[in-house]
Hints:
The chain is α/β, with parallel strands linked by helices and 378 residues long.
Amino acid sequence: MSARAIATSSPAEVPTSAPALLSVVIPTFNERGNVREIVARLHRALAGIAWEAIFVDDDSPDGTAEVVKDVATEDRRVRCLKRLGRRGLAGACIEGMLASSATYVAVMDADQQHDETILPRMLATLAADEADLVVGSRYVAGGSAGSFTPERAKLSRTATNLARRLLGVDLSDPMSGFFMLRRDQLDDVAAELSPVGFKILLDIVLTAKNRLRVTEIPYEFRERTHGRSKFDAAIALEFAGLALAKLTGGVIDPRFISFALVGTTGLAVHLVILRFAFESFAFKFWLAQTIATFAALVSNFLLNNRLTYYDRRLSGWRLITGFLGFCLIGAAGAVTNVGLASWLYSQEPTWWLAGAAGAIMGALWNYSMSSQFVWRTR
Ligand code: GDD
Ligand code: MN
């Protein structure tokens, strides 16, 4: 079936009140400069098709949601789903797709980096039942990663290869945020999808256990015109966490992996500060050790705030109270750790086994308590 065959009639005759055949879900965070342009582009690309755009905005400080609502007052095809107190690209995509009652749903970035002109082809492929999932790919013949900086291109390729090898997904661009599927197919997997991070497509494919027939359509990744990318170290770390979590069959929580990695850097910070305080500044050992411990606590707290819990980041006054809570939890964690390790040692006197078990227990305690009390979901 061609894209034209899906169009009900000539462009002008599609009433905007007709139920949408295709919902285009557009996650946004600080994209106010891109809203009008992306809507105009959808009008051009999808003329003759009953479509709607669902913007999912995480309460962007730049007022993106207000711009979307302005556009929506003039354009019945546009609506805005605003989420409060939450951050996360994957979660925004999931909620946007679930809000759709169309037959097909697509996910596309707001910043015009995804080529909306391939949407009709994606739709035609699904409508002809040639695939269950159609992915816009930068890495099949005819596609290109375009304007990526060399570092970002390398990171993207590494993550892609890692995902393909470790997770066994047969996708050339598993990190793509540009795809379309039948709306009812989402319901089968939605409850198991993770709302954090950037890897929504990968998560859908893995959760469906490769049951979906996938077709990839090439496109050229465009340059961003307005605003800035939200892809950063936190997203990359979280991706590593997801890969490990899936590898361990979901036993390990991806966020815990990030927490544990941050803890490891804390040890390095501790030793470096200790060396300077003790050797270079000739402080008494107990004082040097105290300063190093405090520095490691502050560094762990700030890194966790920046990376592990980036979606629940604390600021202002809550940064201070959060730090105090973090220290208290850490102190209690140390008591738990020493208590458990001592008991284990009395049962089975292997120092490293008892020591490691205590340390792991302490880390799990710190993680679960911090997640509940310091960086709790509002
Ligand atoms: N609601 C919501 N919440 N939207 C978000 C969030 C969030 O926390 N973070 C990012 N977005 C939106 C952006 O506003 C944009 O529309 C889209 O998600 C993609 O974000 P970018 O910041 O533009 O990502 P990118 O261009 O660096 O990343 C591209 O490559 C990734 C893989 O390499 C995108 O194509 C991603 O979709 C893709 O996963
Ligand atoms: Mn982008």
